[in-house]
Amino acid sequence: MNFHKVHHIKGQVRVPGDKSISHRAVMFGALAKGTTTVTNFLQGADCLSTISCFQQMGIPIENNESEVLIHGKGLHGLTRAQQPLDVGNSGTTMRLLSGILAGQEFESVLTGDASIQQRPMGRVIEPLSQMGAGIISIPGNGCAPLQITGGGLTGIHYHSKVASAQVKSAILLAGLYANGPTAITEPQLSRNHSELMLRMLGAQVSSQGTTVSIQPEPVLTGRPIQVPGDISSAAYFIAAALMIPDSEVRIRNVGINPTRDGILRVCRDMGADITLENVIDTDGEPAADLIVRHSRLHGTVIGGSIIPALIDELPILAVLACFAEGTTVIRDAQELKVKESNRIDVMVKNLSAMGASIRGTEDGMIIEGGLPLHGAVIDSRLDHRIAMSFAVAGLASDGTTQILDSDCVKISYPGFYADLRKLTL
Ligand SMILES: O=C(O)C1=C[C@@H](OP(=O)(O)O)[C@@H](O)[C@H](O)C1
Ligand SMILES: C=C(OP(=O)(O)O)C(=O)O
Fold it and tell me: Which candidate, 195, 300, 316, 325, has a CA 20 to 30 Å from the CA of 84?
């Protein structure tokens, strides 16, 4: 797909539901008793993989697009799948499901696409094995496919080396089935959607600093869940409006949970004009309209405890940094290397091809902003965040930007190109 320079972006957009919350609504709804009705569910390929895995384990799920109904069967209501469970491209599905399967009295195989088969699973294999699950990497390289023989779990207090909501959630979910309390301490606070939603469904979860603990065998009860818009999807419109002269957009109903709002804090620190209106709170997940206007930006340093609060936004923030005066340093972000692609390498290679001054480091990137960018052929490496980042870069660059495998945006935002185009009219 090709992109060209536009004069401005203007208007309103409503981004689809949050991916992390949509996955969790299906998984936790399946473990609850009764029906969980989910509105504004993200109909992206990753969340559809989660639905299909739970249907294969005997959970009736009705997907009516505007509403998803999960007829949960309680903590012990899952049944063994007849086929290996296929998570597609979704790391969240693979890791959270590993935690749930660790607690089941049956054997399961979890697999996924070529990208997922290269992502590290040792980070869940280690704690779940410590709890007593039989969990092995079938190829023997710490990656999927995984074979999981669950049951007989012991509660542990795990100290994780990575700040990862997927690891934290896997351990908390296994903790639902343990013989005593389970706790996890992470180096920095990662997104807390699991804690909030499990608590709302009836689990006993307590959080103190970067430690979360959970009590086993709660009775979870299904209930309505409203999914706010995904700030990780809003990020592309935030960046486009800031970068492109004369732009102003209103992005409606965006989730602004403080464990996810790092992009707002960093953009403001760079000089961005972003205001919030219509702030609401739905079951502990706040949301607001974001009004974003073109701004003169300056470089900044992004590192430390803010990184987990903007980890998926770092590719588009790297693009934004090219349009800011001075130097932007991204550090402490080595996790970028183990996402759907190596996002440090892919950003450096593609932004360099467009004329940016960017250098990769062990744990991030250093960008000298202010050079004009020009079009190039961009290999998305089938990574949705890369494709969306360069679509936005293309709208602010001379010449033609051609994105290869552009349809990978269906993973988290199937209507992305249509929504972006509407704002350019
Ligand atoms: O828990 C989640 O829903 C997610 C956690 C993050 O991954 P890590 O836990 O690996 O940091 C993030 O990158 C991913 O898109 C979604
Ligand atoms: C890393 C991502 O997702 P996951 O880990 O679920 O594949 C992402 O959406 O950017």
Answer: 195
Protein residue closest via CA to atom 10 of ligand 1 = 164
Q: What are the structural domains of the chain?
A: 2-16+228-424 (3.65.10.10), 19-226 (3.65.10.10)
Terminal Cα distance for the chain, rounded:
18
pLDDT (tens digit, 9 = 90+) per residue, 342-384?
Answer: 999 999 999 999 999 999 999 999 999 999 999 999 999 999 9
For residues 383 and 346, give the distance between their C-alpha atoms in angstroms, rounded to a whole number.
10
| Longest CA–CA separation in the chain, Å | 62
Q: Which residues are catalytic?
A: 312
> CA torsion sign, 367 to 372 to 377 to 378?
positive
Residue 68 forms beta bridges with which residues?
38, 63
Q: Which amino acid is at 302?
A: I
Contact 394, 420 (CB under 8 A): no
pLDDT of 283 higher than 90: no
Ligand 1: which of 18, 19, 20, 87 to mutate, most ligand atoms within 8 Å of CB? 20
pTM: 0.98
Residue 164 near ligand 1, beta carbon < 6 Å: yes
How does pLDDT run across 136-155, given as a tens digit for each residue?
999 999 999 999 999 999 99
Q: Which two tokens stand for residue 111?
A: 């697999």
CA separation for the pair 406, 417 (Å, rounded): 9
Q: What is the edge-to-edge ordering of all strands in the sheet holding 67-73?
A: 61-63, 67-73, 33-39, 225-226
Pocket flag, ligand 1, residue 18 (CB < 6 Å): no
